[in-house]
Design a protein that fits this description.
This protein is mainly α and 91 residues long. The protein has 4 helices and no strands. The two termini are 19 Å apart. 10% of the residues are buried.
């Protein structure tokens, strides 16, 4: 658990908070696509693209005269996802 937490922290530190999407999307894709790897890879690609596109559109339109950094939007979504996973695993 500790090694996985440090690996995740290093990934986010190196790649930025958009890299957090790569940690979050496979969990969502597994629920939709099932256990077959081919379906899951396709679902990860589609979900990741849709999430980043939606985050970018939201970041550009939230404050019209200026642009919000996309990292703020993706980290907010990621924080909500981690908290919801912790709550679901605790129950």
């Amino acid at each position: 658990f500790v090694v996985a937490a440090f690996a995740s922290a290093i990934l986010v530190a190196v790649a930025g908070v958009i890299g957090f999407v790569g940690l979050m999307i496979p969990h969502l894709a597994r629920r939709v696509a099932g256990q077959l790897h081919l379906r899951r890879v396709v679902a990860c690609a589609v979900f990741g693209a849709v999430l980043l596109l939606a985050s970018d559109l939201f970041a550009r339109t939230l404050l019209p005269p200026q642009e919000l950094p996309i990292g703020i939007v993706t980290s907010s979504i990621g924080a909500f996802f981690v908290v919801s996973m912790l709550i679901n695993n605790r129950l």
